[in-house]
Design a protein that fits this description.
Blueprint (H helix, E strand, L loop, with lengths): L15 E2 L6 E2 L3 E4 L2 E3 L19 E5 L2 E5 L5 H14 L4 E5 L5 H4 L2 H7 L4 E4 L1 H8 L2 H12 L14 E2 L5 E4 L2 E6 L11 E4 L4 E5 L15 H13 L4 E4 L7 H23 L4 H11 L9 H20 L1
Parallel strand pairs: 6-7, 7-8, 8-9, 13-14
Antiparallel strand pairs: 1-2, 3-4, 4-5, 5-6, 10-11, 11-12, 12-13
Helix pairs in contact: 1-3, 6-7, 7-8, 7-9, 8-9
This protein binds zinc ion (ZN).
Zinc ion binds next to loops.
Length: 313
């Protein structure tokens, strides 16, 4: 019953456990006329959530279904396919992977098993990282964090490259690709869907949850969000958390910007990253109840410190 209420719905309200499984089975929210998002549980991979923590999504075109980020495992991908089948009998014809972090794309396996002809797209940097073993590393990591809940998931790599400025058309819908260099990772694409007045930001934006920045750049991520905001679209689908309007992108921009500015200021003053952590926390109280704030803040300050230090030389 959650499907048509869009942004008013809190994903958890729709979570039901499937018979014989603890896998959260979340009803898609319709966020634009042809676009649905399964707003996944907020948190970090665990046996309870079975590493289902992202926002698998799909766009129903008149030539078939386009999936964006089918989740962290074959099990999540299968759940997504069941949810798609409740809404349309059209086949999945394409998959877009926003970046290399495994919670977003290991579900490719389920799509491939059901629709081996579907093309799987990603940025060339992601295709290269997966060719170098990133998928196997993510399977091992998520197997460990979930006590084996993703067992059976095989690495199905994206094979079709999409770079900044590329556009593909699937039936009556266009998918325009934006990449601004290293942002959340080196591999991010943001996907603009003009017909839906919508942008999939991947993990360049997150809503209500702090994401890891170990593979990213604060200034690069801010640059990507500047571009996302310049697109001036009505709907933004973040990598984690509820979809919404520009305000959610602005809020994440403010988080990254405030953190980077604070670290830069106190770096100039000669403080250590350890000394800066509390000062940054005091400026970021708006985010204190975001999932991961307490656990990631110190790490983010340290990473921003290294980045500021490198910029200074
Ligand atoms: Zn990520």
């Amino acid at each position: 019953m959650c499907r048509l209420f869009g942004f008013l719905v809190v994903g958890f309200a729709c979570v039901t456990a499937m018979a014989g499984s603890t896998l959260p089975d979340v009803v898609p929210d319709r966020v634009a006329s042809r676009t649905y998002v399964i707003h996944g549980p907020m948190g970090h991979p665990s046996p309870e959530n079975q590493a289902f923590i992202n926002n698998p999504a799909f766009v129903i075109t008149n030539a078939g279904v386009v999936v964006v980020d089918p989740g962290s495992s074959v099990q999540i991908g299968d759940m997504l396919l069941r949810r798609i089948a409740e809404i349309t009998d059209k086949p999945v014809v394409a998959v877009l992977n926003t970046h290399v972090h495994g919670d977003h794309w290991l579900g490719n396996d389920a799509i491939y098993r059901a629709y081996p002809e579907a093309r799987i797209y990603a940025h060339p940097n992601m295709i290269a990282e997966v060719a170098n073993g990133a998928g196997d590393q993510w399977v091992d990591l998520l197997m460990g964090l979930t006590d084996g809940a993703i067992a059976g998931t095989r690495v199905v790599a994206p094979t079709s490259a999409l770079s900044h400025g590329d556009e593909i058309r699937v039936g009556d819908v266009r998918f325009r690709i934006h990449h601004t260099g290293k942002a959340h990772t080196l591999t991010d694409i943001m996907i603009e869907v003009p017909e839906e007045d919508l942008v999939f930001t991947g993990d360049n934006a997150s809503n209500g949850r702090i994401v890891r920045m170990d593979d990213g750049s604060f200034t690069g991520n801010l640059r990507a969000l500047d571009l996302a905001l310049d697109l001036n679209r009505k709907v933004y689908v973040p990598g984690h958390g509820q979809s919404g309007g520009k305000a959610l992108v602005q809020a994440y921009h403010r988080y990254l910007g405030t953190l980077h500015e604070t670290v830069s200021y106190y770096f100039e003053e000669g403080l250590s990253d350890f000394e800066i952590k509390d000062k940054a926390g005091a400026k970021l109280t708006e985010y204190a109840d975001w999932v991961g704030f307490k656990s990631e803040l110190g790490r983010h300050v340290s990473l921003a410190y290294l980045e500021v230090e490198a910029e200074a030389f």
